[in-house]
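Board notes (copied after class):
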Amino acid sequence: MTPANLFTGLPALEEGEFFEDLCRQGRVRIERILSSASPDPLLYDQEQDEWVLLLEGRAVLELGGEPVTLKPGDYLFIPAHTPHRVLETRPAPRCLWLAIHLYPPDPPGAGLPET
């Protein structure tokens, strides 16, 4: 196995965000996210919990209708179905995130054929 680096191989973004899955295992997905200075205003309402860490940059999120300011090293837990979005970021340094998505277990009997 060859090691990878979170800070290399990122695209130059003019707008929006870049999402890259780093690892998927069972009910866990680890994702690298790069936000431009003009992030996507999409409001997320996800089925899974999300833990997010801001590695570089500064950002303001809207979390459950309230603004939350983050600086490098800040992290937070976003419970499933909590509406959230990136409101603003600074152009330099870029906003680089590490996100861990924790999906709920399948309900009992899910995926089993009906009899």
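Comment from the instructor: The domain at 18-102 is CATH 2.60.120.10 (Jelly Rolls). The CA atoms of residues 12 and 96 lie 12 Å apart.
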